[in-house]
Design goal:
By secondary structure, the chain is an alpha/beta fold. The protein has a single domain, classed as Survival protein SurE-like phosphatase/nucleotidase (Stationary-phase Survival Protein Sure Homolog, Chain: A, 3-Layer(aba) Sandwich), CATH 3.40.1210.10. The protein has 7 helices and 11 strands. The strands form 2 sheets. Strands 3-4-2-1-5-6-7-11-8 form a 9-stranded mixed β-sheet, sandwiched between helices.
């Protein structure tokens, strides 16, 4: 008798986010799903490991009535807690998302969605991050096409496995599934940020700050995640934990210290 896959689903938008529900429902078609996700929004939290305070895990229910778990830790904490055995389970795959906005280019260093998949790889479990390329004008989002894309990719990961130390960053166009142009293996593109500092004063006339600005864009170069999304393709970018700038090694060796 074949043993079903054990899949951990998490996110960075909080356990009650609609994208997580869509992802969990899709992954149930592939295996046994456990949800452990943050109890609040951790967007743009990056790769976090909470070490200065205890973490708590409690049971909850998703909008469809299914059982889930939530923690006061970050997305990467949730993955570590689960893989280290807080729920007495082992996992064959970790899938994070579905984030309502794309995680492309340099976004991957900020994204709690992506760094949850990164934490999975650190723990020795294949990881996938899934994001939807929505814009503010899209209004209420339909996560079903992105969930279907995530399932297709997860089936391939289950069947073929990923290289050691590699995880997948999936970005899905905000389109009906039948309008996808296809699936494209991509590299990271160039995200264009338009950050601006917003300074205000509190009632006691003390300054405080927001990092604001316009919604980021990107340069749609062929072969990149930005370009694939602009052309209507689902982008699959293999990422790795080794950040060494190998092209700079020989240059730096010529420096005198």
């Amino acid at each position: 008798m074949e043993i079903p896959m054990k899949i951990l689903v998490t996110n960075d938008d909080g356990v009650q986010a609609p994208g997580l529900l869509a992802l969990a429902q899709a992954m149930r078609k592939l295996g046994d799903v456990t949800v452990l996700a943050p109890d609040r929004n951790w967007s743009a939290s990056g790769h976090v490991k909470t070490m200065e305070r205890p973490l708590r895990v409690r049971e909850t229910r998703l909008a469809d009535g299914s059982a889930a778990y939530t923690s006061d830790g970050a997305p990467s904490d949730c993955v570590a807690l689960a893989v280290l055995g807080v729920l007495d389970e082992t996992y064959d795959l970790v899938v994070s998302g579905i984030n309502p906005n794309a995680n492309i280019g340099h976004d991957v260093t900020y994204s709690g969605t992506v760094t949850a998949a990164m934490e999975a790889v650190i723990c020795g479990v294949p990881g996938i991050a899934v994001s939807l390329n929505s814009l503010p004008e899209h209004g209420e989002l339909d996560y079903a096409p992105a969930a279907c894309a995530a399932l297709r990719v997860a089936k391939q990961v289950a069947a073929r496995r990923l290289p050691e130390g590699v995880f997948l960053n999936i970005n899905v166009p905000c389109l009906p599934e039948n309008e996808f142009k296809g699936y494209m293996i991509t590299r990271q593109g160039l995200r264009v940020y338009r950050d601006a500092l917003v300074r205000r004063n509190d009632p006691r006339n003390r300054p405080y700050y927001w990092i604001g600005g316009d919604f980021p864009t990107g340069i749609p170069e062929d072969g990149t995640d930005v370009g694939a999304l602009a052309a209507g393709y689902v982008s699959l970018t293999p990422l790795q934990l080794d950040l060494t700038a190998r092209s700079a090694l020989e240059t730096l060796k010529t420096w005198e210290f």
